Amino acid sequence: MLTQLVRPLLAVGLLVTALLFASPSVAVEPVVDTAPTYEDLIARLDALPSSLEAVARYDAAVARADQARALPNPSIAYDMENVYGTGPYNGIGNAETTLSINQPLELFGQRSARVQAARSDADAAGLRREQVRWQVAAQVALVYAEAEAAARRHELAAEALSLAEQDARGVAAMVEQGREATLRDIQAQSEVASARAAVDEASALRDAAFARLSAIALLDRPVQAIGASLLDRAPGTPQAGDADPLAVQVAQAELVTAGRLVTVERRRARPDVNASLGMRRYRDTDDEAFTVGIELTVPLFDRNRGGIRAAYAEERAAEARLIAQQQEARAGRFAAVAALAASGSRTRAADNGVAAAEEAYRLSRIGFEAGRISQLELRSTRAALIASRNAAVDARIARVRAEIDLARLEGRAPFGDSR
């Protein structure tokens, strides 16, 4: 009795399993690698190669500043006098030996000038590290937005192909009914072929953009889709702009460093002083005595005039870079704020244009199917719809670029808080 019940149940189970695997509605969907969110990529900035390089350069500058504080090493000397001569000085029996320690003395402010210059260079390296960080953030935002835009353009191209095929079917039906000439059918098929080529091109551009995003984000394999949208995100209100941009701060720090290097070169022309302290032993009397000495270089031939002139020239160059950077930052901020405001208006206008183009195409399609509108007018409204949707994507890319430019000047990540 139990066997009679088990066999039908087993057969039913096998049948259901076969139907599940055979049914296309329950087929396993391919796994799509979705890109990390923009916030996740920004959180990983410190792990990107450019950021690591900037951090390493800053660490090197800090290490040089620490090294600049080190005192010069002393030297030990051992001298023997009155040796290998004649008479009683034959050999080393009556030699006088001296053991001394020599210590260079960094007088005339030489050490302090060196330490201050190294410390200033480390400060400039710290600002450059922050500058590189936000430059990398800007690059990540741009590549992310371009990948999303490429994906949207591919979707728009696929939709344009679908609309062209739909219109071509309508034209073919009218040709069969004798309401349109055969030439219209040929033109519609040509438009379908052109739209299909546009889809292939958009697919290649999308894959390339995804590959760039995967490369800059150090992902294991290329992404295939964008999750959270960055194009639809509205940027925040620009900051007051009272603080100097990072680029100006870097130029100011470099000018300070150049000025301190002038001091280093000027004090390098001053005499070097060495002090010595030793113990001398007289072999013939077996007596001992201290020796004290001081050595002073005479800046007679080398006064480091070339080094001083070069340091002054570097200082003038740093001052010129600061002035240029201030002017560029002022103009760049004005342009970025204006571009951001204009891109917002452009985006709203593009969205309104898309809504109007969609309604126009809907009405023209109804009129075409009713025979009141020609194929040329239908094609025109369809082309306007495709152009308006692409214009909306372009407007959003322009808004992202304006936000990136402003964020770079303000020292922050695009669409994020200030540092």
From TrEMBL:
GO terms for molecular function: efflux transmembrane transporter activity. Belongs to the outer membrane factor (OMF) (TC 1.B.17) family. The keyword GTP-binding does not apply. It comes from Luteimonas aestuarii. The keyword Ion transport does not apply. It comes from the Bacteria. This is TolC family protein. Keywords: Signal. Residues 1-27 form the signal peptide.
